[in-house]
Amino acid sequence: MVSVPGSVIDESPEPLSLLEVLQSVDTHYPLLQAVERERGVASGRFTSAQGAFDTNVAMAGNALAPGTYENYRSDFGLSQQFMTGGISAFGGYRTGFGDFPTYSLAQKTADVGEFRGGLNVPFARNRDIDRARATHAQARLDIAIAEPVIERSRLDYMRSAARAYWSWQGSGERFGAGERILQLALDRDEQLELKVDSGAVANIERVDNQQNIAFRNGILVQADRAVQQAAIDLSLYHRDPSGRPLLARRARMRPVPKPVPPPLSLYEEALARALRSRPEFQRLSLQREKIVIERRLAVNQTLPGIDGQLVGNQDAGYGKSQLSGIEGLDRQVLPASLIIQMPAQRRDARGKMQTADAQLLQIDRQLEYAEDQVRAEVQDAFSMLERAYEFHKQAAIRLELARVVAEAEREQLRLGRSDVLRVTIREQAKFDAEILEITARQEFWRAESDLRAADTSLGPAGSGLLDAAPAAPGTPPAPAADPPGMRLP
């Protein structure tokens, strides 16, 4: 096979296992890596939400040019919003030196300046929660929500990888079946050539067989194309350590394992695991918590705004005076205030409460449906697995009977009691039965992968029923060389 741009040929001599493909998806699959960046996105939002609690620094300086009044002023301030109780604090330092008009004497300070500080304490609204703390809590939940989103994508990608893997394995067996049926016709042509030369059979018999050779060569070309397509599809999931797609050679193929009877307890175990571990439940539950926070904030907005404020100022340094009035610089101010405000109708807050209540009902219904959907997925996957096992049993019986009939017909031809047409019909029936049996094995392991994706157990940690699966009976191992059209340059 000529590699597509960006891909390389997988030169490993070992059989390619499903576990190796799933590990490659978990480590190198680009779309999964893209989804995993959700952690960074959520972390960035959380950092941004913490910005509401940053310490704010403010500085200013003023100088009045020489003239009627010449003075110099500076101001430095800090403010801090705390996570606890909605409390905020501020502090600062300022200086005011020089000549000031009588209406601006409050700007004058002693030579060391003036210190100030204060607290704002909410008693009702914004005490337990406010917009900054709500956004902070929701951003923290976004970090947690990223995990079920990633896990859901991981399960979907691994399910697709498992299906691509079984399609690739089955394509190799179909190619092998095509090679075998073609070889029968080629061997028969050599025998017919001798018989035609000796006059034992008419040349039309050999012509009929050669027509069959051309037909089977066409089947083999189609099978070769299917192998190449399956290898290309698999390369999207099977990658090298640098992340480049790997085109698996046919030398890495092995027969699709024979289906094993599903244990009686498998359905109950899978359903319990799915209901306990499916990422959809975790994601919806976390989204519900975000709405609960939004509702708490809306309830908070219905409360009256009752804030207590305490502010203090103190002059310091040379120039202090006990005088009162405009010349006194020993100012010690410690006012306490109580500020009350509230919209009369509070429609904004009540509307947000109604919205949150409706969203909570939506989430509850979605959770109920998610449980029904998960249960249905597990039921459907298990039903498919059971039926696939039973279907394979019948396909295997049909294959064995078709094999017996085809061998018997070839023996009749050897004894001169049959003809090429009847042998061709029997061989084609056996070939069709073999293709159906291969497909049945494929479908069983696809169903097994679907079930493990539904119950969250599909992943590089194990291979499920595959651990106990024997090799397909009577199926020769895949050849170590690439088929025609897939040879390396």
Structure description:
The chain has 9 helices and 9 strands. The chain has helices at 18-28, 30-36, 38-50, 131-198, 203-235, 266-277, 279-301, 347-414, 420-454; strands spanning 8-10, 56-63, 71-81, 88-98, 113-122, 246-248, 305-316, 332-333, 336-341. Strands 2, 3, 4, 5, 7, 8 and 9 form a 7-stranded antiparallel beta sheet that branches. A two-stranded parallel sheet has the order 1-6. The termini are close together. Helix content is 55%, strand content 13%. It is α+β, with helices and mostly antiparallel strands. Helix 2 (30-36) packs antiparallel against helix 4 (131-198), helix 4 packs antiparallel against helix 9 (420-454) and helix 7 (279-301) packs antiparallel against helix 8 (347-414).
Features:
489 residues, alpha+beta, seven-stranded antiparallel sheet, two-stranded parallel sheet, 9 helices, 13% strand, disordered C terminus
Q: Which percent range fits the helix content? A: 55-70%
What does the overall shape look like? elongated
Topology as a string of helices (H) and strands (E): EHHHEEEEHHEHHEEEHH
What is the number of helices?
9
Topology:
Elements lengths: L7 E3 L7 H11 L1 H7 L1 H13 L5 E8 L7 E11 L6 E11 L14 E10 L8 H68 L4 H33 L10 E3 L17 H12 L1 H23 L3 E12 L15 E2 L2 E6 L5 H68 L5 H35 L35
Parallel strand pairs: 1-6
Antiparallel strand pairs: 2-3, 3-4, 4-5, 5-7, 7-8, 7-9
In short:
This protein is an alpha+beta fold and 489 residues long. The protein has helices spanning 18-28, 30-36, 38-50, 131-198, 203-235, 266-277, 279-301, 347-414, 420-454, and strands spanning 8-10, 56-63, 71-81, 88-98, 113-122, 246-248, 305-316, 332-333, 336-341.
